[in-house]
Amino acid sequence: MWMRLRAIVSRLTFMLARRRLDEDLRLEIDAHLEALTCHYRRQGMTRDEAYLAARRQFGNTAVLRQDIHEMNGIAWLEDARRDLRHTIRMLTKAPGFATLTVLTLGLGIAASTVTFSVLNAVVLQPLPYRDPDSLVLLWIDDVKRQLHQTLIPHPLYREWKERSRAFSALAFSTSNTPVTLSVSGSADRLDAVRATASIFAVLGVSPIEGRVYTAQEERNGDSVAVVGRALAERRFGSAAAAVGRGLRIDGELTTVTGVMPASFAFPGREIQIWRPLGERRARVMGVGRVAAGVQLSRARQDMNAIGRQLASAYPELAADPDFPGFATNLVRLDDDVAGRDTRSALWILVGAALLTMSIACTNVGALLMTRAAARHRELALQIALGATRGRLVRQRVIESAVLALASAIVGVVSAQWLLRVLVGSLGATIPRSDAIVLDGYVLAFATGLSIACCVFLGIVSAWPADGPSLQDALRDAGRSHGVGAQRRRVQQVLIVAEVGVTLSLICGAGLVLRSLGEVRRLPLGFDPDNTLLFRMVVPNEFSTQQRRRFFDEATSRLRQLPGVRSAGVIGNLLPVSAPNSGVVVESGVEPTSAHVAILDDAISPEAFSALRVRLLDGRLFNHEDTTDSTPVAIVNQRFAREFWGNERAVGKRLRFLDDRSGGAWVTVVGVVDDMRRRRLEDEPGAQVFQPFAQAPGRGADVVIRTERSPLSLAGSVTRTIAAIDANVPVYRMSTLSERLDEFVTIRRFQVVLLSLFAGAGVLLAAIGIYGVIRQDVLQRTQEIGVRVALGASRRDVVNLVLKRCLVLTGLGMAIGWFASLAVAGGMAGLVYGVSPRDPVTFLVAPLLLSGVAVIACIEPAWRALRLDIFKALRPE
Amino acid sequence: MAKGHASHGPKLELLQGTLDLMVLQTLDTMGPQHGYGIARRIEQMSDAILKLNEGTVYAALMRLQHRRWISASWGTSDANRKAKFYAITVAGKRQLAREVEAWDRLAGLVARLRGAEQA
Prior knowledge:
The complex is a heterodimer.
Chain A: H1 2-16, H2 18-42, H3 47-58, H4 61-71, H5 75-93, H6 95-124, E1 135-142, E2 147-150, H7 156-163, E3 167-173, E4 179-183, E5 186-190, E6 192-195, H8 199-203, E7 209-210, H9 215-220, E8 224-228, H10 229-236, H11 239-242, E9 246-249, E10 252-260, E11 273-276, E12 285-290, H12 296-313, H13 315-319, E13 328-332, H14 333-337, H15 340-374, H16 376-384, H17 389-426, H18 440-462, H19 470-476, H20 483-521, E14 531-537, H21 544-560, E15 564-570, E16 583-585, E17 598-603, H22 605-611, E18 615-618, E19 632-636, H23 637-644, E20 653-656, E21 666-672, E22 686-691, E23 699-706, H24 714-724, E24 730-735, H25 736-742, H26 745-779, H27 781-789, H28 794-826, H29 839-865, H30 869-873
Parallel strand pairs in A: 6-11, 8-10, 17-22, 19-21
Antiparallel strand pairs in A: 1-2, 1-12, 1-13, 3-12, 4-5, 7-10, 8-11, 9-10, 14-23, 14-24, 15-23, 16-20, 18-21, 19-22, 20-21
Helix pairs in contact in A: 2-3, 2-4, 5-17, 6-15, 6-17, 6-18, 15-18, 15-20, 15-26, 16-19, 17-18, 20-26, 20-28, 20-29, 21-24, 26-28, 26-29, 28-29
Chain B: H1 4-7, H2 10-30, E1 33-34, H3 35-46, H4 55-66, E2 70-76, E3 82-88, H5 90-118
Antiparallel strand pairs in B: 1-3, 2-3
Helix pairs in contact in B: 2-4, 2-5
């Protein structure tokens, strides 16, 4: 092996000096022959005799020079280089073919690469934690309210930490609890959590600067925080500068102990501040590292057993109707991050990308066959001149490799560009979109794909080379008999398949597009147009009275701004987390499901009008509903139906299970329309509202109905609030329509990508059809000439061409139509509001494709019409 | 084609090796020489028992250069002409010693076998 390698290296070095060595050898041979001739002449020979004797003595100079020439080189490399030159010459002679092939394959590679990089980042790549496979999230399933994966209440998690044996370490964190960061005269709202000190060790991530807070500091209740890199850089200039500095968080001076890397994003990407959980009785989420050798199912059993122990240890909690219960729910962390929705959506996209790729390959296959037909005579000539079959195959392989390489470059470059556009427009709401980059894995994928292309191209283009015998080839020389006809049949089969696949893609894109339309058309229960939405949070130390006054003053000042029609507040218009209220209703029927999830909120009277919510019965709140008056509530239609059935809800009473309103009975004064405030596809649940004046929270969403473009008011709104109290941060400001768009991001993502693929498919199919029909017309030149000579009209000629086109596409579409039905069945999870056999989609798609097919035939038909019949009929 | 070398039978392989050995031995004994000089020397010493195609000397010289057992440089011949001179390298001397030893052992074996036969 070593010797072999050394021999190759030596051959390579000699090859570099080869021209000189060959020249040296020529001189040496000449000198040698001359010397020998002299030698023989001295022995008494004549000049000619001496010369001949010298030649005889020396041997064949040509063979010697050839032998030595070959000794100083690597034969296959030489041949490959020669073939490469030949290939490039051939390709530049057919620039149309080369460009079309490279663009087509490049498009396919780009589509697949883009999809793969998204898949790679979101699903395949490991999370940025140490050994992420053994990490699980811990939740409580609220069996009573049928809520899955809710936060863990105190004291369960403290008990778990003591009792659990299945985990090598456990850590807990609150869900995102934004804090106010005051900076000399202004306030900033930042996403933050409180977490046990163990969280960093459990996830296995170290800070880039400083240190994380310790269990000791957590026990002491020290005011310390670990911050995200983005915050550190924004506030202190660099991560290193942040360590040891102070931050005023919710009015409390806190010392920064360390800075986490930008990739650290637990429990959410937005979190920038981590502070010790300490002895707080918060509701938390858990993350644990399963002990080595313990199966997830074992851990589940273990936790269930602990749940049963705790239920008997805390009978008072078990009896508390507000307590979510003891049932644990363990999910692998990576399953949780890329949610099921995203996953299935992505796999569909992968399918679509592969279909696009297959269309591209089919197209190129057809192109290559056309080219092979044209090169028939050239090949025959090469065979006649002694090219071996191996040599011909090698040429084809090299040609394929050149084409595949060029396509790979085109594909990867356009993928890079597409990704930037895609992540830029949709990124923020796709999980882990920051990890979507062209990394080594993606490049490896693209390379693999290109090699597959190369093999495919090689096989397709080498295939007909086996067919013709030498005589056939020379005699036939590209005429339309024998092998030509067979090749055309194969091409037509390819086109039929291509049309079928394209139709499936169009149908898929059509279905997701229609679903998006349906979701968008769902009645929201409010009017999102011309509405500005933002959030404000008052400082901790504000009393209930101060909160009420602040929000009152803020909304009344906002109402006076020019361009504002109405402004109101609501606790949380579009809540992210699950609802949590329990209510008892007076004299109602049993609700249809035993425990209805209820969304409850405080709302000011103006918010209803700003949102244009329809009042169905009774009255809205007014300014007489204050702390001093009777506590009142408004429910939505769903609530009324669930609890009171057909009875009138207005006048009925209900009671909140928590201590709000001192446990007093609350009278329902009105019924409003159902608002879709969470996933748009879900039917709105039961909702109950209290007057904001009777239950003001620290934070609230402000809803402003504007006369003109809502965002144009952003500046004056921010200034107005700052004028009242500079310590109240105004954040998450956007139009309500924008916020609703986020609910459909995944759908939009699907629509954009699938439409892209379908568009590419249609384009490729059009090119394919055009190529085949054009070839057909060319090969039937004589036939068409004869027909015209026998009196066929122009119309007959056009029909002839169109018929061929429609038969091919029609056949493809018939097959594709049934295939699409099957594909649509698999997409049922993505389709909303329309049947997976949606008649509109399945009617429009074939019509669209037929239209494209006809357009693709125009040029060949025109060519057939302009045929010069004298030329056409003249024998070659 | 370069492939040809590998497909030669063992007999030719031996002959080729023998020529290489003779060229190495010549250069070792006589110091730097040009191709013609080497051919003359081998012809002289062989006493016409060896029918040598002198061109093959050049093939042998190229092979030996590939193995780095000899080196080549241009110089001036006795006849005051430009000629390429070949010289044995240190690695070449080592190789020569190895080959001569192998050759002697082989010759010794053959001699012993013949001796045993005669006895």
